[in-house]
Every structure is written in structure tokens, then in C-alpha cells.
Design a protein that fits this description.
Layout lengths: L1 E14 L2 E6 L2 E7 L6 H13 L3 E2 L5 E3 L7 E6 L21 H16 L4 E4 L7 E15 L5
Length: 149
């Protein structure tokens, strides 16, 4: 599993001109599922995301997690995180999970995050979504359950 985590002061996702998910201070998480991913990857990545110390403390150091600052999370599924651009000019998505598996694991991740008491909003799986955000910092991190980066 892979995700792009952005610290935001606010973010929203719109489908068909209707806002379907919206948060204030917290994290925008673009979430991709690979063909070989399972529940263990999902749990590991959720724990990593909610525990990341990327919010500032009183001294201005990144030392607090989204839990510590009582932030919110906007989760957006994004299979293109598995786009392989090493050959040619058209990305290959052959290592992305099939939609049914990806949706199940995405939904599982949302459930796990909610178990931490965090407000979690989402986009709509497989929809054409427009994402707006104000990246705070900017702070943007890449995470991978296989620890490739």
C-alpha cells in the first residue's frame, strides 16, 4: 500500500459539483492499494499515518501527530499511486489492486482510522473527484507498506 500524506489547514473533495468530504486542520491522505497488499499492510500504514509526528509543538518542532492535535483526516482513494512510468510515456497500472480488492482495503483503512477517534471523511471510490487543499508548510510525505521509500 502506498499513500501521499499532506498536512493541511483544510481540504475537500468534490464529485459532480457536490462536496462529499471536507476537513479542517489535519491530513489529506491519497491512498493506493497494490495487487499484493493485505490487511497487515493496511493496519501498518494506518498506524504509521495516525502516528506521524508532523505537526508543530510549542517550540515549532514537528513533534505532534494528528491524534495529538485532534486533527481530521480526508482519505481519497488513488490507484494512480501504482502507476509505473519507467518505460515509455504511458503509465502502467498492472501492479495496482483490482477495484474490488482495493475498495475493501480502502474501506478497512477508513474503519481502522476511525477506531482512533479521528474524524475521517472520504471521497467516492472510483469517482472522478476534484480535490482542493491548503497544504500547511508545505508538508508532504510518501509512505509505502513495503518500505520502498
Amino acid at each position: 500500500m502506498r499513500c501521499v500524506v499532506q498536512r493541511v489547514s483544510k481540504a475537500s473533495v468534490t464529485v459532480d459539483k457536490e462536496v462529499v468530504g471536507k476537513i479542517e486542520k489535519g491530513l489529506l491522505v491519497l491512498w493506493g492499494v497494490g495487487e499484493n497488499d493485505g490487511e497487515e499492510d493496511c493496519r501498518w500504514l494506518v498506524e504509521k499515518v495516525v502516528g506521524l509526528r508532523i505537526f508543530e509543538d510549542e517550540e515549532g518542532k514537528m513533534n505532534r501527530s494528528v491524534l495529538d492535535v485532534k486533527g481530521e483526516i480526508l482519505m481519497v482513494s488513488q490507484f494512480t499511486l501504482y502507476g509505473d512510468c519507467r518505460k515509455g510515456r504511458r503509465p502502467s497500472f498492472s501492479s495496482a489492486a483490482p477495484p474490488e480488492k482495493a475498495k475493501d482495503l480502502f474501506d478497512q483503512a477508513v474503519t481502522y482510522m476511525g477506531e482512533y477517534g479521528i474524524k475521517v471523511e472520504t471521497g467516492i471510490f472510483q469517482a472522478d473527484m476534484q480535490v482542493e487543499l491548503i497544504n500547511d508548510g508545505p508538508v508532504t510525505l510518501l509512505l509505502d507498506s513495503e518500505k520502498n521509500f
